[in-house]
Amino acid sequence: MNNLLAPLQSLTKGNWFKLICGASFQHLPTVRSLTIAYTLAGADCIDVSADPAVIASVQAALQVAKSLTGDAQERGFNYKGNLPFLMVSLNDGEDPHFRKAEFDQTQCPQTCPRPCEKICPAQAIIFNRTKDNFSGVESQKCYGCGRCLPICPYDIIYTKSYISTPTAIAPLVISTGVDALEIHTKVGRLAEFQQLWQVISPWAAQLKLLAISCPDGEGLIEYLQSIYNLISPQCQQIIWQTDGRPMSGDIGDGTTLATVKLGHKVLAANLPGYVQLAGGTNRYTVAKLKAMGLLNSADQAGTNRHYIAGVAYGSYARVLISPIIEQLETKEVNPNNLKANIHLEEEPELLWQAVELAHSLVSQIKSQQER
């Protein structure tokens, strides 16, 4: 199999690794750094917001990573220069992945202990930022986890949701070389899914992969089967992403239980395609899968898919290298003491620290399932 299809080979082997940057996460410097670090660590897919600026940033980062192939190999990383798939996410209705937190900072009392600022995993909530005296939610960094909502003592934080506009996304896929698409849906939204699919289907054949992300619900398997019947004529490679406990992997080891359980449920249904975990995944996920016998069970031909084909990591993967990203953000590069974006590859020490951290996660499923 050639390098272009290396990510598909990982699916067949059962050692697929996907980085979720976030369907609504649009902070370009962070997306760029995450892409470089996890690509060099061996990721198979980078999943991002359907935002032209984000897509362009990821594509530039992928080329930077490819140019560092030799350096990575000299440092002992097994990166072969293969480019991961670039995936963008859409939704067919209300979904926590497609929202932003907001609040009016003038309503926030000065005496408030500001628990929202402390709990935000993306450091998107800021008070009295020095350079511009900004207070509030830095929209580009917010990815909709919602942890700030219940913790606000004055109940002034709310969210704004949005639904994808596929007619605007189609030209991006055609003109910019996006490899894969992920559709977020829920049980009971078949009519909405079908409406979205009618717009997507004319250009779906040029995708290398289609992922369907769905949380659990009554009638889940029947719903997924209905979706398969709708999309199968246009899509040969399908991933069923089991969204166990969305955007919670960095909270603790218990969060991965829901997605492992849901993955097992979908796997048992034997739907055509691959099953990949998401939602609550962290450093405990692969160990739990192995303990349950859900890894390393593919036959030699790779046709009996009675195993989990891969794992996607979002909040945990981002938080893992956040100390490196924070160091980049605090660097000052001009005499006026103004911050400017410093690219990760411009700081070799930080770069390889980030790759080492990313590799500590990627290698779990890669090393466990090498054939």
Written description of the protein model:
With 371 residues, the chain is α/β, with parallel strands linked by helices. Helix content is 38%, strand content 16%. The protein contains 13 helices and twelve strands. It has helices at residues 6-13, 28-40, 52-67, 69-74, 115-119, 166-176, 190-204, 220-231, 256-268, 285-291, 315-320, 322-330, 348-368, and strands at 16-20, 45-49, 85-91, 99-102, 125-129, 134-137, 158-161, 180-184, 209-214, 238-243, 274-278, 310-313. The strands form three sheets. An eight-stranded parallel beta barrel has the order 1-2-3-8-9-10-11-12, surrounded by six helices. A two-stranded antiparallel sheet has the order 4-7. It has a two-stranded antiparallel sheet with strand order 5-6. α2 (28-40) runs parallel beside α3 (52-67). The protein is globular. 47% of the residues are buried. The model is unreliable at 297-304 (pLDDT under 50).
- The string of secondary-structure elements, in order, is HEHEHHEEHEEEHEHEHEHEHEHHH
Helix content: 25-40%
Order of strands across the widest beta sheet?
1-2-3-8-9-10-11-12
Strand content: 15-25%
Q: Would you tell me the structural class of the helices and strands? A: alpha/beta
Shape: globular
Tell me the number of helical segments per DSSP (H or I, 4 or more residues long): 13
Please, what is the average pLDDT? 89
- Terminal-residue CA separation: 15 Å
According to DSSP, the number of beta strands is 12
Q: Sketch the major β-sheet.
A: 8 strands, parallel, barrel
Please state the CA-atom Rg, rounded to the nearest Å.
20 Å
Low-confidence stretches: 297-304
